[in-house]
Amino acid sequence: MPYRLTRNVFLNAVACPRLGWFSRLDNPPHELDPEQGSLASRFLLQEFRDVHARARALFPGAVTVSRQAYEAACWQTQDLMDHPSTHTVLEAAFGSSTCRARPDAIVRLGDEWRICEVKTALNRTKELVDDLAYSWMVLEQAGVRLGGASLILLSRDYRPGMPDEALFTTVDVTQDAAARAAGFKELVAGADAVTRGTEPPEPALTMRCRTCPLFRSCAGKGIEHPIFDLPHLTPAKLQRFIAQGFRTVQDVPDAALLTPRQALAWQSVRSGKATLTGDLHGDLAAVVWPARYLDFEIVGTGIPLFPELAPFERFPFLYSVRTCDQPGRIRSHKVFLSPHNRDASQDMAERLLQDLGEDGSIVVYSGYQMRVIRWLAERVPGLASHLRGLISRIVDLESITRQDVCHPGFGGKTSLQAVLTGLVPGFSYEDLEVEEVATASAQFAYLARGGYYSQERAPLVRRDLAAYCARDTLALVRVHEALHNLAP
Ligand code: SF4
Fold first, then answer.
1. What does the pLDDT look like over 217-254, one tens digit per residue?
2. Are strands 275-276 and 168-172 parallel, antiparallel or unpaired?
3. Is residue 469 one of the residues assigned to a domain?
4. 17 with 38, same domain?
5. Residue to substitute in 9, 215, 216, 217 for testing ligand 1 pocket (most ligand atoms within 8 angstroms of CB)
6. Residue 287 shares a structural domain with residue 254
7. Neighbouring residues of 345: CB distance < 8 A, sequence distance ≥ 6
8. Is 235 within the bounds of a domain?
9. Ligand 1 pocket, residue 219 CB under 6 Å
10. Number of domains observed in the structure of the chain
11. Which atom of ligand 1 is nearest to the CA of 204?
């Protein structure tokens, strides 16, 4: 067990003592970092390093703490800070009796210091402020006089080719970070004690469990339909239910305790069958045949891949279109995969208009596909009116599912994966080289950046990407077919 609390352990322990306990183990459960070693996490780590390297342009004349061993890095930090000519220290190290922290930069402000944290993110969030507040707390405990706190975020105005400084925008969060740090100080002794125990604290079901990576092996162990599967469950209502001893949907004894929508989900779980909650037949009748099933793959990187893209601007690089003349009967399939060495939005827009033809509904899953078409219309102004003309043909199966169907297999969600599990059991991506969207995006990003895949490997990667997207539209066809069979 690490001697001092790290930021991750402390913040996890504040969220849930048991989660903090597992985070502090020398070998935490793999669920706490399920992406570890994946291509997507490797790409993120590489980009994180690239962003941090570029952020050095903001601190000319800064000195970097070079010692690797923690105590040595703390001493070196102190030496550098004591030197009056030191203006900025990068990767400074600090320790209190219970915690340790390594802020990205500290900048001298007279006889005080400003903490700066570089984040590969566009927006200030509560989580980012908490990260900084933790550093604030540790530096104060280490005796540093603090005069400010800044988040250094990515700027939406940056475009490739601009100097590195233009990649960043600085947000002052001094007040919030100081206030949060004051609150954290009250919690640190408890977090340290609870995560040092020889046994983990007992699980306690809270709203945090809903998104906790340990849920299935912890508070949700052996539970098929946790209480969270009820739609629109508020924290207050969850607390009431937990106080009454309800942990599963089936534990709720009476539909009168639920909203009408929750009651339908409850009924569906208790009966083990799908429940129609709207006019599924009528809504599916909106589909005009031949139907074109469309799915895009997109990529958004902190450091843009192509000219005129902003950080994290989502760039469609691949689509698949299947045409059916009745539910489940596929007549044709088209795929477009952009070349990875240039922005081929114009080519994509032209091909998309051809592949979608001029008649029939365009069946998608989620409103996101519509946003991609709007984005393409802005990117390719010469075809904008034709592209915008596609929007009126769109039928969104997710909104129909959300409106009209409760199914015990959905697990309270309406994502394509959840709905496939409920409606098309056995449908799988497991035989593909690419099984999930984060891998697909990372593969294209690596192809576009170059230097990762060999010339021989690149065509195989492109083949795998096309196969993944094709499976997505096959999933759409199957879900539509299953919905059709459910409709009276
Ligand atoms: S599932 Fe809940 S109780 Fe268990 S570690 Fe996660 S947040 Fe804590």
1. 999 999 989 998 898 888 889 889 988 989 999 999 98
2. unpaired
3. yes
4. yes
5. 215
6. no
7. 316, 338, 376, 379, 380
8. yes
9. yes
10. 3
11. 3
